UniProtKB/TrEMBL annotation:
Reactions accelerated catalytically: (6S)-5-methyl-5,6,7,8-tetrahydrofolate + NADP(+) = (6R)-5,10-methylene-5,6,7,8-tetrahydrofolate + NADPH + H(+)
Species of origin: Castor canadensis
Signal sequence, start to end: none
Gene responsible for this protein: Mthfr
Gene3D superfamilies in the record: 3.20.20.220
Region (Disordered), start-end ranges: 1-123
Function: Catalyzes the conversion of 5,10-methylenetetrahydrofolate to 5-methyltetrahydrofolate, a cosubstrate for homocysteine remethylation to methionine. Represents a key regulatory connection between the folate and methionine cycles.
EC number annotated for this UniProt entry: 1.5.1.53
Entry's family note: Belongs to the methylenetetrahydrofolate reductase family.
Name by which UniProt lists this protein: Methylenetetrahydrofolate reductase
A Gene Ontology BP annotation from the UniProt entry: methionine biosynthetic process
Domain MTHFR SAM-binding regulatory: 421-589
Subunit structure as annotated in this protein's UniProt entry: Homodimer.
Length: 605
């Protein structure tokens, strides 16, 4: 079996005239049950053997009503040839030559209407939203203990990103080796959220009992990974009592000063506020003075510790204003989700639960569903009071890595907005160096995380004008591939979908056909993913489903495809993307595996 090249043109790219695609790509199949082994060519001597997909050229166009220019006279001739499907040299493939040097200033018209948020710092996004009165929400997560838990958390990021959070934040705990390259470290979880999930992300960082050099190293690594925001904290002492360390960072204000001194304005800095005062502070007023010191040192905004009554927050904001603190203050919201988690969080924060809440929870403490429902009602009521006050620009939710309660609260508040419009045909990475990226090759459409991993070391990205052809080609997949790109489905589920064993080529054909049709397989299970696509079918696939079903049942196994689209508006719910007022044009494309030689002739292919 060998791959067939797609047609000469590929899926949407945010450009105004046909252009070239990206570097060649391969199908990354996560090691798994029998179907994967067979498709990966592990059945030696059999008729099925895969080779790496060959280079393909891609082209497409999205015409914007804002841009009259579609064919500038100074376009690169090599690009024009490739756009016509000539198979000319590829400007970004290693060792290729474009015929004439590609330039950022010479390829074609500039791209209209890119999402301005891709270019903004977080504090500027907040300022713009505050000026427009557009409320936002944000979410806090903590690193899980196991690699499997990390994979599940990344899937949760993808699901909760659909609601439109302004940012998320990832906590930091010194005991968990937070700055390492482990899959479960704070650094790697935050990096994955930025680079693979496209989420604006704040990384917590503590300074208690850490050397200056170690903290600087963590900050340099965070910057290299594309992280732009830090929540500066002192952290908890290693023992029962906190003791100052000579020559070290003893307070969060010290960390804020260090970040500004070493990194200037690169990082946006958040600090913590305590509506009832920090438990170790001498008084509420003393704690406000420490907060003012953190803001004066360079903090951009404040997120508060959780609280249970709106008046607590209002008093805190009023006190901050009187102290001269004018930066945004975001209330920390904790939807109660269980009796044990509430007790643990209260113990850690040293907060007192109001008696009226205790009176409701105690009788139902063994009924998790009842407590969660009460917690949702309580959180909705609290948030409504906060938002109605006009003093709250956004809400910050402590999720405890759970999604149901927070999602339900946001939906009831009308803040969970699943906008079907897409700025680009793929989920946009939040890494600063990808902010100009608006072109990707079609044959990576079903494997966006793989594409990001392979291109993580590029020094520039396609932005409608292909850049330096000597930029690095694809990196190799290493151990992290198993973490970032591991299937979201457990092995047991994959076996139910793909079968415990495969007895013939037709068994493989049936798996692909079931995936396309949405009908249960012979075992009664729906096939919701394939090794090349961990997600359900894209809606646009329904436009060519019957054709795809016919060829897959004949042994031409499609792993990527797109229908022909001729002038659909950019607001179309199925194929639309980008700003309104544009039109989408794309040629039909198909990428597949098929039998060759005698095996193909025997099947009539």
């Amino acid at each position: 079996m060998r791959p067939t090249q797609p047609h000469s043109c590929s899926g949407p790219a945010n450009i105004e005239s046909p252009g070239t695609g990206g570097p060649p790509g391969g199908a990354e199949a996560t090691p798994g049950p029998s179907l994967l082994n067979l498709l990966a060519g592990e059945e030696r001597g059999g008729p099925l053997a895969l080779s790496t997909p060959e280079r393909t050229e891609s082209c497409c166009a999205r015409i914007s009503a804002e841009t009259p220019c579609l064919a500038p006279s100074n376009r690169n001739p090599a690009m024009v040839n490739e756009a016509r499907g000539s198979g000319g040299p590829h400007p970004r493939s290693e060792g290729s030559s474009s015929g004439s040097e590609s330039s950022k200033d010479s390829s074609r018209c500039s791209t209209p209407g890119l999402d301005p948020e891709r270019h903004e710092k977080l504090r500027d996004k907040m300022k713009r939203r505050m000026e427009s009165g557009d409320k936002w929400f944000s979410l806090e997560f903590f690193p899980p203990r196991t690699a499997h838990g990390a994979v599940n958390l990344i899937s949760r990021f993808d699901r909760m990103a659909a609601g439109g959070p302004l940012f998320i934040d990832v906590t930091w705990h010194p005991a968990g080796d937070p700055g390492s390259d482990k899959e479960t470290s704070s650094m790697m979880i935050a990096s994955t959220a930025v680079n693979y999930c496209g989420l604006e992300t704040i990384l917590h960082m503590t300074c208690c009992r850490q050397r200056r050099e170690e903290i600087t190293s963590h900050l340099q690594k965070a910057k290299q990974l594309g992280l732009k925001n830090i929540l500066a904290l002192r952290g908890d002492p290693t023992g029962d009592e906190w003791e100052a360390e000579e020559g070290g960072f003893n307070y969060a204000a010290d960390l804020v000063k260090h970040i500004r001194s070493e990194f200037g304005d690169y990082f946006d800095i958040c600090v913590a506020g305590y509506p009832k005062g920090h438990p170790e502070a001498g008084s509420f007023e003393d704690d406000l003075k420490y907060l003012k010191e953190k803001v004066s040192a360079g903090a951009d905004f404040i997120i508060t510790q959780l609280f249970f009554e709106a008046d607590t927050f209002f008093h805190f904001v009023k006190s901050c204003t009187e102290m001269g603190i004018t930066c945004p203050i975001l209330p920390g919201i904790f939807p109660i989700q269980g009796y044990s988690s509430l007790r643990q969080l209260v113990k850690l924060s040293k907060l007192e639960v109001p008696q009226q809440i205790k009176d409701v929870i105690e009788p139902i403490k063994d009924n998790d569903a009842a407590i969660r429902n009460y917690g949702i009602e309580l959180a909705v009521s609290l948030c409504q009071e906060l938002l109605a006050s006009g003093q709250v620009p956004g809400l910050h939710f402590y999720t405890l890595n759970r999604e149901m309660a927070t999602t339900e609260v946001l939906k009831r508040l009308g803040m969970w907005t699943e906008d079907p419009r897409r700025p680009l045909p793929w989920a946009v990475s939040a890494h600063p160096k990808r902010r100009e990226e608006d072109v990707r090759p079609i044959f990576w459409a079903s494997r966006p995380k793989s594409y990001i991993y392979r291109t993580q070391d590029w020094d520039e990205f396609p932005n409608g004008r292909w850049g330096n052809s000597s930029s690095p080609a694809f990196g190799e997949l290493k151990d992290y591939y198993l973490f970032y790109l591991k299937s979201k489905s457990p092995t047991e589920e994959l076996l139910k979908m793909w079968g415990e064993e495969l007895t013939s080529e037709e068994s493989v054909f049936e798996v692909f056909a079931s995936y396309l049709s949405g009908e249960p397989n012979r075992q009664g299970y729906k096939v919701t993913c394939l090794p090349w696509n961990d997600d359900p079918l894209a809606p646009e696939t329904n436009l060519m489903k019957e054709e795809l079903l016919r060829v897959n049942r004949q042994g031409i196994l499609t792993i990527n495809s797109q229908p022909n689209i001729n002038g659909k508006p950019s607001s179309d719910p199925i194929v639309g993307w980008g700003p309104s007022g544009g039109y989408v044009f794309q040629k039909e494309s198909q990428e597949d595996w098929h039998l060759t030689g005698a095996a193909a002739r025997g099947k009539g292919i």
